[in-house]
Amino acid sequence: MFDIAQIDTRTLQLNLAPVDTALLVKEVSNSLGKSLSERKQTLTIDIPCLPLAKADPNLLKKLFQHLLTNAIKFTPNNGKVIITAKAVTTTTRTSELPNGGVEIIISDTGVGIDPASQDLIFSKFYQPGDLSKHSTSKTRFKGGGAGLGLALSKGIVEAHGGRIWVESKGYDEVNCPGSKFHVILPLNAPKNGEQPKMGAEIKVQLT
User: Fold this and answer.
1) Which end of the chain is more exposed for a tag (fewer CB within 10 A), N or C?
2) CB within 8 A of 179, min separation 6: which ones?
3) CA neighbours within 13 Å on the CB side: how many for 52?
């Protein structure tokens, strides 16, 4: 709630540093091992060597904690979560990134998101689907929550000057079309004459 209040008042303080997003994502993923095991899910990370992002590492951990927890919750048992990433240049979508950026994509084989709700899910207190069918557990299928995780995620990304959006064919608990959450973060600018510093390549599968 404190972070949300700071985002609402535009007073969220960023402690920016060069960040290896692949290593940070792996660290967050490792902390979710118990949830993956309980749900019999597989989480795959396939990230190449990428330039370092310019970001607040603690806020990025919160961001990916929320996104990955959501992916696990809204994916049935024995499902899959896949994290990939790539470098992006300055484009129309990322025109505010003068040095380019990194795009992290979190895909799942979950219930998906109705196209009409794909902007609403980033609003405070929004809850997808029929709330009467939600579990009260935070790790079980469609586990309940305060409805603040995606609002906080959006606030964190935008505070960095980045973008976040979701792609999904629709909401279907039977066929599970899945979702893809895209996060673009700005790159750390190299000093004059220096080559951009690169992060680690991470290819790992967690269950």
Assistant:
1) N
2) 71, 74, 107, 108, 110, 112, 113, 166, 167, 168
3) 18
